Amino acid sequence: MYAVGHIAIGYLTGKALGKTLKVKPNLPLIFIASIAPDIDILIPGLTHRGPTHSIIILTLIFLPLFTIYGRKAAPYFISIIQHPLIGDYITGGTQLLYPLTASYYGIHMSVISQTNITIEWTFFLISLLVITKTGDLDSLLQPHQTNLLLTIPAASLLLPTLTNFPVQVPKEHLTPHIAYIILFITSILIDLKATIKNSNQSINEKRP
């Protein structure tokens, strides 16, 4: 599955669980969690959709977070675990039970198939609706220090869109990729503007 699908499903699952548990997750962290398993693309020697996509390893990583933060960690866990369990299970197969077994599990549907593209578009549209209806859009367009973290999901969308790394984005997926890119970059710029403004005010207040 492409980044846009992972981000959409990660947001929706994290948001839904957060509402169920009555906790409010940090949106930039939810978006990061949704694509985090693909860090293996940037680490030499790691097989893509290998250990970083294992539900066993991901669960072990989150155990300390559950111990410290309790149910507040749950939305991020579901957001990261959906990546191999839903997105990559559909389109490629993953080493879900590594290190118990190196076997790949999945449907192995072609990522460029019309069915997968339709699935990703559907989740993308639903995510836009939820972002708008729940007020998350307004939240993302307000200055907040953690909004700078959106550079990570923004990069995961920009690289394949502009450079075809790690995969080429099909023309059918350009619109949702660009939509998310615009949203994330706008949020980042709003935060940077506020940070610069506050910094200048602080400097002026210190002047004699």
- Give the overall silhouette: globular
Sheet bearing the most strands, described?
A: none
Strand content: under 5%
Structural classification: mainly alpha
Number of strands: 0
Work out the helicity level: 55-70%
Instruction: Determine the mean pLDDT.
Output: 94
- Annotation field: number of helices: 8
Which consecutive residue ranges, at least 5 long each, have pLDDT under 50?
none
What is the H-and-E element order? HHHHHHHH
What is the number of domains?
1
Distance between the termini: 57 Å
Q: How large, in whole angstroms, is the Cα Rg?
A: 18 Å
Explain how this protein is built:
The protein is mostly helical and 208 residues long. The protein has one domain (3-202). The protein is built from eight helices and no strands. The protein has helices at residues 3-21, 27-35, 55-69, 74-91, 114-133, 136-140, 151-163, 174-206. The mean pLDDT is 94.
